[in-house]
Amino acid sequence: MSDGDDFYIYFYTGHKGRFGHEFFRFEIDREGHLKYANNSNYRRDSIIRKNLQMSPTLITVMKKIIEDSEIMKEDDKRWPQRDENGRLQLEIRMNGKSINFETAKISSLADTVNTDDPEGLRVLYYLVQDFKCLILSLISFHFKIKPIA
């Protein structure tokens, strides 16, 4: 595959707190293999790990979401550094370009306001929300135990 055909996404958000290491993570490679992990030790929950194969059409949708967000034009130099509240990491390789951003965990849109780059962080925040909705929907639909009657 040429660099222009390369596609990869890695996303992580998490922190270490009174319930241990809690995080939400997913990775998608250029063949559409999705690896998902979610760890919350609240009420002694155990880590959830799921793998599935995404269709080429869904990969095209993911690329469109990324392009529409314009995240590839952003720069994380002025974003808050990770701290005791956790971190958020996003790596994307697509169309011969790559980004690898790391910032403090963003829990809500309000966390982006009083920063040195609120617009850039808003772009990141909305892209992350789109990704989370899509990935959680895929996991839910793919691993539904009881089919909808």
Automatic annotation (TrEMBL):
Compartment(s) of residence: Nucleus
Gene Ontology CC terms, in alphabetical order: exon-exon junction complex
Keyword entries, A-Z: Nucleus
SUPFAM superfamilies with a match to the protein in the record: Mago nashi protein
Keyword Nucleus: yes
InterPro entries recorded: Mago_nashi, Mago_nashi_sf
GO biological process: RNA splicing
Keyword Electron transport found: no
Main localisation: nucleus
Family membership: Belongs to the mago nashi family.
Protein name: Mago nashi protein
Protein's organism: Coemansia reversa (strain ATCC 12441 / NRRL 1564)
